[in-house]
Design a protein that fits this description.
Layout lengths: L18 E8 L4 H4 L3 H17 L5 E9 L2 H14 L3 E6 L9 H7 L3 E7 L11 H5 L7 H10 L6 E5 L3 H22 L1 E6 L12 H7 L3 E5 L1 H9 L3 H14 L1 E2 L5 H20 L4 E5 L7 H7 L1 H10 L4 E2 L4 H12 L3 E11 L4 E7 L12 E5 L9 E5 L5 E10 L5 E11 L8 E7 L4 H9 L7 E5 L3 H11 L2 E4 L4
Parallel strand pairs: 1-2, 1-3, 3-4, 4-5, 6-7, 6-9, 8-13, 9-10, 16-19
Antiparallel strand pairs: 11-12, 11-18, 12-17, 13-14, 15-16, 15-18, 16-17
Helix pairs in contact: 3-4, 7-16, 9-11, 9-12, 10-11, 11-13
Length: 484
């Protein structure tokens, strides 16, 4: 299930990728002649599960292959689900069934499998139930068998147990569906990487093959000239329309030079064309440039367009931080936003960590109408122009970073905190004051030791369970940082 953020006025979100959920329900066929009323009841339960799955979101498609009663029917269902290209397969254990009925589904599909055990109601009516009525509540019985067989077959196991109208169980099921959608975005994603590594940033250097190998998807290597030729084609009318859009979305500070805003608008239009032409789902960029030459000027004009793209659902990060733009994509597709972030300072008086970044930001999670501020110089970067300034909406937030271990394996690192009010710098940066429930120095030490890069995505809401589910389905190590 793909969550949709409330996009700032004047912007249109990109069309989200749809999530395909396969459904197979089953029970042991030996029961049907023994208890004639059992199969019709179980089929009604399966229809209800199919209905609830379809109601999880407009971007969720359900491929229901029906009810299976033996291993042969399970093999047929497995082939149908394999051909459907599912992002997640849900196996509904309506009563006892043998592992041989579902192991082929898990082995052949190539998709993660979620087993659900949802009995008809919260408990049986023990005084009136006979064996046939009890068997409709017996979906828990095969669950250990499935777990054991899946493990021995080398198939990852996950399950949700509850009853048909158990909203806690359905919240957990929805979480797995959402995570499967994010996994699908990563497996099919196209990530742009434009320019070159910020000199000396060893933590953000990324082997491009490792992205496809561990996450799936494709990294498109771009030149600044790919952007330059598109910016050169932008007409004056198109640039002025983009200036008008910027004034609709942002408060424009008096420090903004009209020529800098016009240039940022022109680059923004060209950047949109670049993303469309290369069908990008995310973008990371950096170029140093020299002495005001064209590439330096292009790089300096990217912040406005990058922020507008990020708000529309195409996360864009500076400093060539490919894994950070991917982390931003994960948070965006969870409905959390995900803004380009790093540590800025520690406030030991108020007990908060100040974090944010210069450059592109996720406008949809701003605490207020975002501001465009004019800067005569970018710190640590060449050029000048307009930059984005705001703090993230106050309340629960989650950090999400995609780090890398010494053996090359990625690690998904997360932490939950709360953005609180307080003094903020007015220097054209996004800045938030985050309370992690303890000493900010101690938290910073634990976070820095987690394996995360020095950039990450900051999004709204407490999302650790969602991120843990994504890591599970993608096959990543997951680390939650907290102060005990």
């Amino acid at each position: 299930m793909t969550s949709v953020l409330e996009t700032p006025t004047g912007l249109v979100r990109t069309t989200p990728r749809r999530t395909t959920v396969g459904l197979v329900a089953g029970g042991l066929g030996a029961y049907w002649p023994q208890f004639p009323d059992l199969l019709p009841q179980l089929r009604r339960s399966a229809e209800r599960v199919s209905e609830r799955l379809r109601g999880l979101g407009d971007e969720v498609d359900v491929v229901d292959v029906g009810f299976i009663s033996d291993a042969q029917e399970g093999a047929v269902a497995a082939e149908k689900l394999r051909l459907a290209g599912c992002d997640l397969i849900v196996g509904f254990l309506t009563t006892y069934m043998t592992a041989s009925m579902l192991v082929p589904v898990a082995q052949r599909s190539g998709a993660p499998v979620l087993l659900i055990n949802l009995q008809p109601t919260a408990r049986m009516d023990h005084a009136t139930f006979d064996t046939g009525a009890w068997l409709a509540y017996c979906g828990a019985c095969p669950l250990p068998e499935m777990a054991n067989a899946f493990d021995r077959a080398g198939v990852d196991f996950r399950s949700v147990s509850g009853h048909l109208e158990d909203e806690r169980a359905w919240a957990r099921i929805a979480r797995w569906v959402t995570a499967a959608g994010v996994r699908g975005v990563l497996r099919h994603g196209r990530h742009g990487l434009m320019g070159h590594l910020y000199p000396g940033m060893l933590d953000v250097a990324t082997d491009l093959t490792s992205v496809s190998a561990q996450l799936g998807g494709h990294v498109e290597v771009l030149e600044l000239d790919d952007l330059r030729v598109r910016v050169e084609e932008v007409t004056d009318g198109q640039a002025q329309d983009r200036v008008a859009l910027a004034r609709e979305v942002f408060d424009v500070d008096a420090s903004v030079e009209p020529a800098d805003l016009e240039w940022g608008a022109r680059v923004s239009v060209g950047l949109d064309r670049l993303v469309e032409d290369f069908a990008l789902d995310s973008l990371a960029y950096y170029h140093r440039g020299l002495n005001g030459e064209q590439h330096e000027t292009l790089g300096a004009g990217l912040i406005l367009g990058a922020s507008l793209l990020t708000a529309r659902g195409v996360p864009t990060a500076g400093e060539y931080e490919l894994r950070n733009s991917i982390a931003m994509l994960v948070m965006d597709r969870l409905g959390a936003g995900g803004s380009f972030t790093e540590l800025q300072a520690l406030d030991f008086v108020d007990g908060v960590v100040e974090m944010g970044h210069d450059g592109p930001a996720h406008l949809a999670i701003s605490a207020r109408r975002p501001l465009l501020r004019g800067l005569g110089v970018y710190h640590g970067k060449r050029g000048r122009g307009v930059s984005v300034e705001f703090d993230v909406r106050h309340g629960p937030v989650t950090l999400c970073g995609l780090g890398q271990r010494r053996d090359g394996r990625y690690v998904l690192v997360a932490a939950e905190g709360e953005v609180v009010a307080g003094p903020l710098l007015q220097i054209g940066n996004t800045t938030s004051r985050v309370d992690f429930g303890g000493d900010p120095g101690e938290w910073t030490d634990v976070w820095s030791a987690s394996g995360v890069d020095h950039h990450w995505a900051l999004g709204t809401g407490h999302r650790v369970p969602d991120l843990a589910a994504v890591a599970d389905l993608v096959g990543l190590e997951f680390v939650e940082v907290r102060l005990w």
